[in-house]
UniProtKB/TrEMBL annotation:
Basic and acidic residues compositional bias, start-end: 176-191, 208-229, 423-440
Record region (Disordered): 176-230, 418-440
Pfam families, per the entry: N6_N4_Mtase
Entry protein name: DNA methylase N-4/N-6 domain-containing protein
Location of the DNA methylase N-4/N-6 domain: 257-424
Transmembrane found in the keyword field: no
Entry's Gene Ontology molecular function annotations: DNA binding; N-methyltransferase activity
Similarity comment: Belongs to the N(4)/N(6)-methyltransferase family.
CDD domains: AdoMet_MTases
Record GO biological process: methylation
This protein's UniProt keywords: Methyltransferase, Transferase
Length: 440
């Protein structure tokens, strides 16, 4: 009790925070009435002090003492004795209840002050002792819990002291512990009840909890996505390989591929590669698997000649391109469609799945100079390979085959001898967001 001392009256009075905090503030009207009465008649009633260890600790009259000090009015005191500070504090609370017209919130607030200032700590139970440890029938001896333990800081206890419902005690506690200073002031001035304010506080806490949960969930999803994007990135880096297709295909297991869907370069000097492509296909394709390759019209006979020693010719497929037509001056032809040659290892698996031999397609050159359309790739990969089957494109270019195979849930592998094409395709496959809703 580090209170200020005054010498205005008959005894030296000590103010003590443990008691002053129990005193409920006066309303503006009450304060004015008291001031006017003291100024007119002086301080009629004695201030109550607790004579303790040679000090006169003020219990009742905090407001009057302040007014007297300011108005330089004398006051007199009456002393009371108590066993201890707690008993004195209890008297302060009861005295206010009897003298003042305190609201239930004010009473509960006051008794919470009391409970917090004079809270009795729960006695820690001593460690249990085992008598005759190791012997049969050993008896555990538990010390008795201290009977002096009084839970003075529970809602129930405060409610009982303040003569208010337990709910009021708990609302007041919520405002005291979690309210803003404005909310505390509103409760103490009676502007709003503890019930209304506590409801706001609980709503705020709930909103915060939900917002925190949403934030945590968003973070968890983002982490998961970046983790799965990482895993995907590694898989894509593994499955889009840089190098000559012959070397790369040599590492692939025999009869592991359902469909080779590819677009080799078909300038005259590259045409012999179709022979190597066919030889490779004969090894890696499953029996009944297909090789579908784009072919320039003018080299169709050469390509068929190079491939048929290894795979059986099955059909010619046509991609009809809309839009501007290429012109082949040396042949005098405006090119309206592009052939795709279809070969099979043995005889075609799943003949019962009918496919059309013509696809209406559109030009696409967004990513790669030789890029083929996603349209025919989607149609033939979907129809000529089983779900989860393996699709291989030895001439990756812009990665159209891999993009489509990934979208269709096929396993896939691709390669290109050109590093730039490999990098570009990896990025295109990784960032392909075709299945995301618009605007996401
Ligand atoms: C016509 S492009 C493929 C275009 C692809 N279909 C698309 O839609 O983007 C042919 C690709 O084969 C690659 N290539 C040529 N010879 C190769 C070889 N021996 N091994 C691997 N890739 C090769 C070229 O670098 C080129 O990117």
């Amino acid at each position: 009790h580090q209170g200020a001392r005054r010498r205005d009256g008959d005894v030296r009075i000590t103010k003590d925070e443990r008691f002053s905090r129990l005193i409920r503030p006066l309303t503006a009207d009450e304060n004015q009435g008291l001031r006017e009465s003291i100024e007119a008649e002086g301080c009629r009633d004695p201030l109550v002090v607790w004579k303790h260890e040679g000090k006169n600790i003020l219990l009742d009259g905090y407001h009057r003492l302040d007014i007297c000090a300011r108005a330089k009015k004398p006051y007199h005191t009456v002393a009371r004795t108590f066993d201890d500070a707690k008993a004195a504090a209890q008297w302060v609370c009861r005295n206010q209840e009897s003298k003042r017209n305190l609201s239930p919130d004010e009473r509960a607030d006051m008794w919470w002050e009391f409970a917090e200032a004079f809270r009795t700590k729960r006695a820690k139970p001593k460690q249990s002792l085992t008598r005759g440890r190791g012997l049969k029938g050993a008896k555990k001896v538990f010390p008795k819990r201290k009977t002096s333990f009084e839970p003075q800081h529970t809602d129930k206890h405060v409610a009982k002291n303040a003569h208010v419902p337990v709910k009021t005690a708990s609302n007041v506690k919520t405002v005291r512990d979690k309210g803003t200073s404005d909310e505390k002031a509103a409760m103490r001035s009676g502007e709003k009840t503890s019930g209304v304010i506590a409801k706001d506080i609980r709503k705020r806490a709930k909103d915060k909890r939900l917002a925190d949960e949403r934030r945590r969930e968003a973070k968890r999803r983002a982490d998961e996505m970046s983790k799965s994007k990482d895993v995907r990135k590694k898989r894509i880096e593994r499955d889009v390989e840089e190098g000559d297709f012959r070397k790369i295909a040599a590492k692939m297991p025999k009869e592991s591929v359902d469909l080779i869907f590819t677009d080799p370069p078909y300038d005259r000097k590259s045409v012999p590669m179709y022979g190597d492509l066919a030889e490779m296909g004969a090894r890696v394709l499953k029996p009944g698997g297909s090789l579908v390759c784009y072919a320039g019209h003018y080299v169709v006979p050469d390509i068929i000649n190079l491939i048929t020693p290894h795979l059986r010719f099955w059909w010619v497929l046509a991609c009809v391109h809309t839009g501007r037509k290429a012109q082949m001056r040396e042949y005098g032809i405006k090119v309206c469609w592009k052939p795709m040659l279809w070969f099979v290892k043995g005889t075609r698996a799943r003949k019962e799945d009918w496919v059309d031999d013509i696809v209406l397609s559109e030009r696409e050159k967004d990513e790669h100079g030789w890029q083929q359309s996603i349209v025919e790739a989607s149609y033939y990969i979907e129809n000529l390979s089983p779900e989860g089957g393996m699709v291989f494109d030895p001439f990756c270019g812009g990665g159209t085959t891999a993009v489509v195979a990934e979208r269709l849930g096929r396993r896939w592998k691709t390669c290109d001898e050109d590093g730039e094409s490999v990098d570009m395709s990896r990025g295109r496959i990784l960032n392909d967001d075709w299945d995301k809703p618009e605007g996401s």
